[in-house]
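Severity: low
Component: inverse-folding endpoint
Summary: output formatting inconsistent between runs
Steps to reproduce: submit the following C-alpha cells with default settings.
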C-alpha cells in the first residue's frame, strides 16, 4: 500500500484518503510475508500504468527473505490487467508458464 507503488484508487477505496501508517503497513502484502506464506506465481508488465512493477518485485523479495518460493514473470508490454484479456504480445503466454510452474510445484 506504499503510495508510490500501489494503485491509487484501490489504496483510497480500501484505506481512505489519509490512512494511518499502521493501517498502510497492515495492508502492505510485502510486509505481511512469513515463512508460512504460500508460494506465489506472479505476472506483471513494465508498462503497467496502474501499479509499478516494483510492487511485484518487492513481494518476490519478501518471499525470498522468508524462504518462501515464488516466481515472477515481467513482460515488456501488457499494461494493467493484461491477464484478464486476450493479447497478441509475448505476455499472452503467461498461462502456459503458470501451468508449467504448477506442474513443477506438484500443484496439478
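Observed output (run 2 of 3):
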Amino acid at each position: 500500500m506504499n503510495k508510490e507503488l500501489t494503485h491509487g484508487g484501490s489504496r483510497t477505496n480500501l484505506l481512505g484518503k489519509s490512512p494511518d501508517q499502521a493501517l498502510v503497513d497492515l495492508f502492505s502484502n510485502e510486509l505481511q510475508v512469513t515463512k508460512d506464506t504460500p508460494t506465489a506465481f506472479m505476472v506483471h508488465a513494465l508498462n503497467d500504468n496502474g501499479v509499478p512493477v516494483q510492487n511485484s518485485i518487492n513481494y518476490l523479495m519478501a518471499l525470498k527473505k522468508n524462504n518462501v518460493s515464488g516466481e515472477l514473470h515481467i513482460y515488456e508490454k501488457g499494461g494493467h490487467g493484461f491477464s484478464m484479456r486476450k493479447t497478441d504480445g509475448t505476455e499472452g503466454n503467461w498461462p502456459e508458464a503458470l501451468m508449467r510452474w504448477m506442474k513443477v510445484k506438484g500443484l496439478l
